[in-house]
Amino acid sequence: MEKDLSLLDWRIGDASPWPIIRMRVFHELTRRSGIHGASHPVRRTPYDKLRLVGRHVAGLVTRNPFVGRYDALVVPHPRKPGGVEIYTDELRRTLGSSALILDSGINGTPLAGSRNLDFFTSAAGAVHKRQLDDRGIADALRDLTGVSVPVGALLAREVPKHLRLRALYRALLRRHRIKTVYVVVAYFHQHIVGAARDLGIRVVELQHGAISPFHLGYSYPGRPEVADQPDDLWCFGSYWTSVADLPAGMSTTVIGAPYLPEVGQKDPRLVVFLSQGTVGADLLHVAEAVTKEHPSLDVVFRLHPSERASDYTIPAGVELSTSGNTLDLLASATYQVGVSTTALFEGMALGCRTAVANLPGHEYLDPAIAAGHALLMTSPSQLISAPLCSTPDRYYAPTNLPSLL
């Protein structure tokens, strides 16, 4: 469809709309089809929304990013388990006061001392048309999948928002004469990447999760030219540099993963199920089956940071885990089970025997399964046959970030 409709060559005014909405369309398609639930749901009460507006207004003064002088811009991930943003932590320490940390408080708690443009981010999408011409995308998707996705409404909201924010970020980057932009999750920050592109500023994306041929934030079969993409993708290990066709012109560099803990004393009975919002309910059924098949094992169902305990009714024999650090838990576990979460790869590096549940999304782990680093588990009896990864550095290498700066 992407090629047939020439979506990568499509323009609406000064915007290239398809890369802006590509991942959003995928999320809507999988959610509406029932294949996946919401990947990282954000839930707010009316009171939460009022508080958020108040923080936006206060942030115009207290978190104004136009104040000061900086050489680099760092855009961290909104997820901060235990208050730590692990993907840019070492980078921020290394850059020190030369870096402007732009950290939104819309979907998380901003880092101490960071700045943001949250008021403008929210306001930029407030006024828009109801629909834009979708170039036949909705009809093509319906013909392919039988699912209706409101592509015209997505375009009407996201394209004007992108253009308004792009202009604002151009002003910010000019103000500080930024030399390099470092960003996590670039496919949802294309207004920042595009602004940097407009000014000839280098953009580096730091890997934050699993990359695969099925991840539409990264995978562009045939490596075509794609608007508003980073210059370089800094990866955890060599596996990630070639697992998907990245856009033309995007290079890759292995920087390692300094945030992984040391492997601890392994508990031979501990099995950790790694939930994620997309398949959590089905994975819980697998956990229940495992505890019945292997009653001597301690089965722990670990929630994703975006999930809540109230989302689930935990069956007998399964322990719910919501506190502490997931990586520390994996460092002491003997077995891990999941579907497509990045934590499965982290667990491989932490010495876990890895089983991949036969649920939608397991294809993300196909290369690791083919390499003998994980087992596709179609029956709970297979768990104890799950393999160890013999080459964990392929996924998570020792850090070499300082040598790149």
Care to give the gist of this entry?
This protein is an alpha/beta fold and about 400 residues long.
Properties at a glance:
six-stranded parallel beta sheet; 12 strands; single chain; alpha/beta; 405 residues; 32% helix
Please specify the SSE layout and strand pairing:
Elements (H helix, E strand, L loop, with lengths): L16 H17 L12 H17 L9 E4 L13 H7 L3 E3 L16 H7 L12 H9 L5 H26 L3 E5 L5 H9 L3 E5 L25 E4 L3 H4 L8 E4 L12 E8 L5 H14 L4 E5 L15 E4 L4 H7 E6 L3 H8 L3 E5 L8 H5 L4 E3 L28
Parallel strand pairs: 1-2, 1-3, 3-4, 4-5, 5-6, 7-8, 7-10, 8-9, 10-11, 11-12
Helix pairs in contact: 1-6, 6-7
Structure description:
With 405 residues, the chain is an alpha/beta fold. The chain is built from twelve helices and twelve strands. It has helices at residues 17-33, 46-62, 89-95, 118-124, 137-145, 151-176, 190-198, 239-242, 280-293, 326-332, 342-349, 366-370; strands at 72-75, 99-101, 180-184, 202-206, 232-235, 251-254, 267-274, 298-302, 318-321, 333-338, 353-357, 375-377. Strands 2-1-3-4-5-6 form a six-stranded parallel sheet. Strand 3, helix 7 (190-198) and strand 4 form a beta-alpha-beta unit. Helix 1 (17-33) packs across helix 6 (151-176). The mean pLDDT is 92.
